[in-house]
Amino acid sequence: MTVAMASDREAAAVANIIRLADVQKFFGPIQALRDISLAIGRNEIVGLIGDNGAGKSTLIKVMTGVLSPTSGRIFIRDREINLSDYSVRMAHDLSIETVYQDKSLAEKQPLWRNFFVGRQLTNRFGFIDIKREKKIANQILMDVIGFRGVGITVDSTIGNLSGGERQGIAIGRAMHYNADLIILDEPTAALGVAEVRKVLDFVRRIKTSGRACIYIEHNLAHVHEVADRLIVLDRGSIVAEILPKDMSVVELTEFLIDLQHKS
Amino acid sequence: MARQRAVSAFQRVEGLPIILVFVVLLILFMYLSPEVFLRPFQYTTFLSTLPPIILLAVGLTFIIGAGEIDLCFPAIIGFSGFTFAVIFKEGPDWLVAVSGAREGDWLASPLAAQIVQWCGVVAALIAGLFIGFVNGILVAKIGIPSFIATLGTQFFWYGMATVMSGGKSYALRTAEASSVWQMLVGRPFASSTTDWLQQVPIQALWTAIIVVIMWFILNRHRFGEHTLFLGDSNDVSRVVGIDVDREKIKLFMLMGFLAAIASIFLTLENKNYFGNQGQGYLLLAIASVLIGGTSIFGGKATVIGTIVGCFIIAIVEPGLVATGLTGAWVNTVRGLIFLIAIIFYLHVEEPQRRSAFMVRIGRLSAFGTARPAE
Known about the structure:
- The complex is a heterodimer of chains A (263) and B (374).
- Chain A has 263 residues and is α/β, with parallel strands linked by helices.
- Chain A has 9 helices and 10 strands.
- In chain A, helix 6 runs parallel beside helix 7 (193-208).
- A two-stranded antiparallel ribbon of chain B has the order 1-2.
């Protein structure tokens, strides 16, 4: 309890969960990210939109330690991080979790292994405490994700779940690890209407639980519905910041099409 | 619902389908040639011939489970076997020659010779680890597909063994007197009055211990979990924070280590090192792993299945010969069992393949039934 309060107080003093300053990323001669500067505050859902190849995924990978930027600075909770040390594991330790459209869960593995892989509960020889992992996975399933009576257990194989259920599990896992920032990479791609509803509900849950979220989406209606702020990316640069209340989905669509024609 | 429960019980017991196949084969052979299969000698023979292939197949279970392949391990049997044999046979004499020790000196004593021979064991293991490490670097860091990388290293290390041995073989005729032989492949019950018990080899015990440890590592250890996730998807593994390159290097080193142990057992059991030893094991080991139920596509692996797969591969030969068919039939039957097993696994474990297949042969209509591959 005291630990939680202390971390709350600490978090309250922090202005931004993550801030990027002048980040550049080159793949050989190709510049994928150009002068990216952005900040994500606490308790907001930021939509990241842009056409294919605009650099959305690259930006996410840089933020989460999968790729290292060619140059630039990254601050997490206002503290600069050493980019040569930055890795996925370190991002996890700094409470940043990512949910990828199809790369978050291993298909042939049971649910409980997917919850804990990468940070297994082990004894000092590295052997996994299966009983405890399953028990906690079951709690997450019931309490955090709210899968009651739908026939999903901790032993279910991921491959047998629907797309929406998978996203729910990936988001639930991120919330269980007390992530301050959850990054969603096109979580509704290739999902049916009812499944999309479920996922959007999960996204809202992220915000009500007091966390921040970066939401990458192709479907402007979905992102317009849940985001507090939209960042538009085009050819590796940030070209606009829009508040959903200032622009309807139709206007937003036209804005993006104009952007394509402008150059 | 009841059918579903039966199916899940079928899948919950590790390797159950293949265990049943083995039991059926065994009963068949017992019925057809009781004079061989109802007496213990056939089984004590298995205890001394099976350990190398079991060790190789268990290592390969990890490799294939991780979605990789290793073609190099027969060469590790060659190279590590050479390293071991040369030190075992000539090491004690070198020691005397190099140190100039005379009769009665400690360095010329039997104890010193024994120590040198144990160094041969250690050197062979280090050689196996090193070859595995090189394979791992080639696959993980340089990015060569494992099939190609290990094909290349396989040639290289066999060649290296030939160059260094000058094509000679090493007969280890007096090996039985050494503590290395006694400890690793000895016959602990040699003084027993029961005749078959005299022939029980101790390497069966060492192999069983290693297999149990490897089962726990695959199913209960962080490394085993990482292995299966690698086989499932390298991308997912990276995203969840597995150090993909490092785990792959470790996998190939594990394979090298187990192959080195196999080579020591093989060389000692035969009391001979010859240049192309191990060459027959490549396809047998791969077949054992796949018959056992480890997925060709990675992500699913079973140590128990692999062991039973080894038993099946091994039992076919004496079984067919004893029942009156010639040895020429052995590989035909092995091939048949192998193909049936692979088709079975594809259809049990990947329902979408099953329905796609049914559609192809016209049993089902194409609409609504076949789930598209994702």
